[in-house]
Amino acid sequence: MCLILTCFAAVAASILWYFKDEKNLYKLGTLALMYWGACLMWFVDCFFALMQEEAFLDLSLNDTLLGILIILCGVLMWFAILIYNDPRKVLNHKKNFA
């Protein structure tokens, strides 16, 4: 289920990046790359599980919760990057006293 959830998140972030982030203001490409990396990681994990004659996808509740946690961690990391870059200059607002 981790693979399915992160693939949906990667596709959603990629679509948002393609259609909404023309000036790269919100760094949606970074969010999409984080999710595509997680998707690749889970695909490799599923592939090795298949090689050990286990099920390709784990549809348990624990695996679903892990997928949700990975998506939340990606959003939190993206939010930290967004705050650091401060695209609207809200946090680094300097007053001119001339």
What overall geometry do the principal axes of the alpha carbons give?
Answer: elongated
Encode the helix/strand succession as letters: HHH
Poorly predicted tracts of residues: none
How many helical elements?
A: 3
Q: What is the domain total for the residues?
A: 1
The largest sheet, given as strand count, sense and whether it forms a barrel, is: none
Helix amount: 55-70%
What is the C-alpha radius of gyration, as a whole number of Å?
A: 18 Å
Mean pLDDT level:
89
Distance between the termini: 59 Å
Keywords: Membrane, Transmembrane, Transmembrane helix
Transmembrane segments: 29-51, 63-84
Overall description:
- By secondary structure, the protein is mostly helical.
- The protein has one domain.
- 69% of the residues lie in helices and 0% in strands.
- It has 3 helices and no strands.
- It has helices at residues 2-20, 28-51, 61-85.
- Helix 1 packs parallel to helix 3 (61-85).
- It is elongated.
- The chain starts with a helix and ends in a 13-residue tail after the last helix.
- The model has no long low-confidence stretch (mean pLDDT 89).
- The chain crosses the membrane at residues 29-51, 63-84.
- Keywords: Membrane, Transmembrane, Transmembrane helix.
